Amino acid sequence: MSSINAPNPPNRLWIPLLAAAVALVVVHGLGRFAYTPLLPMLVSDGFMGLDAAAAFATWNYVGYLLGAMLAIRLHQPDQIRRILPAALIVNALCTVAQGFVTQPDLFLALRLINGISNGVVFVQAPALVLEWLARHGLAAMSGLMYFGVGAGLLLSNGLASFPAEWLQGAARWWPMALAAVPLALWSAHQLSHLDRPAAGSVPPAASPTGRLLDRASLPVFLAYAGAGLGYILPTTFLPVVAREQLEAGHWLLNGAWLILALSTLGAAWLWNKLGSRMGDRNALVLNYVVQGLGVAGPLLWPGEIGVFACALLVGSTFLGSVLLTQRLARALHPHQGPRISAALITLYGCAQLTGPWLARMWLEQGGSMSDTYWLGAGALLWATVWTLRTQGAPAQAGTGGIHPQRCVPGR
């Protein structure tokens, strides 16, 4: 029993963190956000139109929402150990199948299944490893596993851009598939064999029964809804906005997504560190302000400066809002870790689902994709206001710098 909080050998520490990060590479980098750099190419190939592209994105987010809702039901550790590896493999197989599908209806179905499996993995993998870290007094390191999202964005950008001249249509997914399958197999194996808590080490209060929404947690949920809508427009349509605002041949047409991907690489470490120093709530306020400026960049400074600012500021912040919110919410309800994580991701998925839908409606009315960014900037202002109203969380060992004396109590 005394060994639970004892220092861990390096191999026990880095393997779970790396396994969770690799899972996020597979489902978020290669499975989901590879669609963003591929989208202009697929449209140019005649594989899909811009309206259809927005519809495919919408159904992928519908799947993501359904997957997160499923994870609320499947929150017990034993359930996670069975479902998580299967969801990882299914996600990788969807990426493989997309490389051979030309029928729009079948492609849409694959994007839906990809979204469902992505939602399950994005909830369960970080939640499983966060609980493991918390048992060992290392929850402050939890943000490092989100490095996998940044690495996945960078990897998907490279796999989309480098072979672009030699591939066409659905075949553009082949490089993603070749990377996704071995990574998914390794991560699934490692996460399914993660050590379990010792018998009797989990207190009865850890039973996932109480309310998730109360006076303390409601502002966190409301803020996170704004974050979901705020970030999804640039992370889905930034290359399209770049094409609207920049001349043909400009380096940012392909470079904007690369800058965003590169910016995410240090984001997990940066916001993990700021959360430890400032408190997670205060760091989250700063995060939303910077992220909001990034989303508004193409509107405030149309052209090169705005597109560059959007890529840099959104890329360096959106992962921080995820890890800080997850940790802050867990500190408010410390015995409902996987369940509150699933609830937050469900809300996040529901909010971000509206982004592509609203973009599609605006395009059908003859508007530009750039104008939809006003909605994203307003959503992040909403997130900032509600985070300012978040009350302090009880200080706990390894929570990653949640300092109640630095938080303004909610009214």
TrEMBL record:
Q: Does the keyword Transmembrane apply?
A: yes
Q: Which GO terms describe its cellular component?
A: plasma membrane
Pfam family membership, one: MFS_4
Membrane spanning segments where?
Answer: 53-71, 107-130, 137-159, 221-242, 248-271, 283-300, 306-328
Which keywords belong to this entry?
Membrane, Transmembrane, Transmembrane helix
The reply on keyword Transmembrane helix is yes
InterPro entries found in the cross-reference section: MFS_4, MFS_trans_sf
Q: Which domain of life is it from?
A: Bacteria
What protein am I looking at?
MFS transporter
